[in-house]
Amino acid sequence: KRPAGAPDAKLARPVTKVGVVGAGLMAGQFALLFARLLLVPVVMTDIDAARVDKGVAYVHGEVDKLLAKGRISPDAANRTRALVTGSVSKEAFADADFVIEAVFEELTVKKQVFAEVEAIVSPECILATNTSSLSVTAMAEDLKHPERLVGFHFFNPVAVMPLLEIVRAPKTDDAVLATAFATAKSLRKTAVLVKDAAAFVVNRVLLRLMGEVFAAFDEGTDAHTADNALRPMGLPMTPFTLLAMVGLPVAQHVTESMHEAFGERIAVSANLQALIDAGRKGLWETAEDGSQSVP
Ligand code: CAA
């Protein structure tokens, strides 16, 4: 069944090579997925060789884990490793037909990246952004070919989260959108078309939820109690565990952009900022007896 709002799948174009801008954790996770499931070369770039090497090494390490678990055959592991390479130069994208970015969540940074990529790739090459909160419409503004930009938002951990939000900007053309849906299907994700609005659908709900748990904590409820009160609601992770997985600074950054868009509906927590300033990776410290507390 065609997902709501998706164009005719017949319009989809083949994807034969993928470029990934940014070799961080999110990028590494989906580089692996593209190589494993699309079976096409994937080249990762970043601002220096150390970052690129780290990104490629992460992918190769994940392949080793899959092999050790017996999830992939030795042949598939070798093929996947060979498909994922790195380069410090975006020239490596010259023959790519799908380039996706996962760089810092700042509009000017993403626009700069796409301007550089557009100078290298063919006019048909699709540009995708993994932004979780920024306007895809604004990102397309200065492109020579704004019709080729689409939002392609994965969730963490990419390997196991089935959802993918696909974002259409006003100028995104049908063939680009159809290719995005076909690619999502090949990646075995459930793709939904969402409106280009701050934080799309999932993050605006998730961050509101985390924000309210933080508000209960800020207002004096014990943090552990506030967090664990949601456990019997059937959530796969408590809100603060999820927060640590997403990363405190990333969550705060997204919350700030959502606060700009939604005002008082999305509160920025002073406690969260204090934890970030203290260099904390999560909320909890686990004591020897297994009890957890906010230090
Ligand atoms: N990378 C790869 N695989 C992972 C993984 C990771 N980081 N974390 C877990 N897995 C795999 C495990 O290896 C395991 O696979 P196997 O069965 O092959 O061993 C499988 O997932 C299940 O893991 P576990 O049994 O250890 O744990 P679980 O049943 O508690 O599931 C979870 C883990 C899937 C992460 C689950 O807790 C969950 O769904 N959590 C919520 C995640 C969520 O809400 N993500 C959205 C984050 S917001 C975001 O991403 C938005 C943004 O833009 C900032």
TrEMBL record:
Domain 3-hydroxyacyl-CoA dehydrogenase NAD binding: 17-196
Domain 3-hydroxyacyl-CoA dehydrogenase C-terminal, first and last residues per copy: 200-282
Family in the record: Belongs to the 3-hydroxyacyl-CoA dehydrogenase family. In the central section; belongs to the 3-hydroxyacyl-CoA dehydrogenase family.
Name the record gives this protein: 3-hydroxyacyl-CoA dehydrogenase
Organism lineage: Bacteria, Bacillati, Actinomycetota, Actinomycetes, Micrococcales
Part of the whole protein covered: 335 to 629 of 713
